[in-house]
Design a protein that fits this description.
- The protein is elongated.
- Helix 2 packs across helix 3.
- The termini are far apart.
- The chain has one domain.
- The chain is mainly α.
- A hairpin with a 4-residue loop joins strand 1 and strand 2.
- Strands 1-2 form a two-stranded antiparallel sheet.
């Protein structure tokens, strides 16, 4: 899902926060073909929004002075007051 939406955004097929319905349907068909799992476009959109909210929350944490993230260990570190 992320690779298809990222590719679509970078090739300027769509802009803004709203994912086009045809893109969600394309993602659903790829998931069905590759994994045999069935999702509606609405379910995929809800999953995408969930991940988007988590990303923004994570970014807020990392934008806090004194906070860093170690990619290799996947740990977020902060000074004692934080």
């Amino acid at each position: 899902m992320l690779s298809i939406t990222t590719k679509s955004k970078t090739t300027a097929e769509w802009e803004g926060p709203i994912i086009p319905l045809d893109l969600l349907e394309q993602v659903a068909s790829v998931i069905m073909a590759e994994l045999g799992l069935t999702f509606t476009w609405r379910e995929l959109y809800e999953h995408f929004r969930f991940f988007e909210h988590r990303y923004h929350a994570f970014k807020l944490v990392l934008d806090t002075d004194g906070v860093s993230w170690n990619f290799n260990t996947n740990f977020v570190f902060g000074s004692e007051p934080i």
